[in-house]
Amino acid sequence: MTARLNLIVLGKQGAGKGTQSTALSEKYAIPHVSTGDMLRNAVKAGSELGKQVASILQAGDLVSDDIVNQLVSERFKEPDAQRGVLLDGFPRTIGQAEALEAMLGEEGIKLCINLDVPIELVTQRLSSRRVCQECGTTYKDTDVEAISGTCSNCGGDVIQRADDHPEAIRTRLMNYERDTEPLLSFYGNRGLLVIVDGDQSPGAVTDEIIKVVHERGLA
Ligand code: AMP
Hints:
- With about 220 residues, the chain is an alpha/beta fold.
- The chain has a single domain (about 5-115, about 165-215), classed as Rossmann fold, CATH 3.40.50.300.
- The protein has ten helices and eight strands.
- The strands form two sheets. The protein has a five-stranded parallel β-sheet with strand order 2-3-1-4-8, sandwiched between helices.
- β5 (about 130) and β6 (about 140) form a beta hairpin.
- It starts with a strand and ends with a helix.
- The structure holds adenosine monophosphate (AMP).
């Protein structure tokens, strides 16, 4: 059996994690596991979990480790996750990273890619970001899809995320610095961290990541 390709894409909100994760999950045929998407879907569906987390998401605060660890551990049991996973937005705290190590056992994380983008640029990207509610395609506020409110990919509604307003953006970036940035040392100490300049075209960023995965003999 080939080893599982478990990859983490880390980076500030707006660094391009979603875009890169979509491209890499296609390239390596592993599922894109985004805890943000899973939680937003729960809110949209009005489930018990959704009701519990809705106001936390809207404010840009972090959901508890227990809730997200449970979500991810359930997701790992699905058949499509048996060849590996592309983790986007998880782990976000040291507690989650430790729980992840316990979940994966010997078939651990193979690589953690940090998309490095200056704070001014991510703030600007998040403020002007619009997203399709159906398929998740992202647009800029000046794109025709954002102006018309209709996704050219699937016809879904293009909206501004509830947490892409200035106050929530500030909270999310503060939380990132406090809770998530320590993961750079966590994975750096394990020799698993690669820093990629996220201030390039999406295609150039993907190519750089693919090169690293190849150089490390992971795929
Ligand atoms: P994202 O789409 O990754 O920016 O996530 C959107 C929101 O979902 C975050 O601002 C948090 O409220 C919540 N969330 C997503 N992933 C996590 C996580 N790993 N731990 C805690 N909260 C999370």
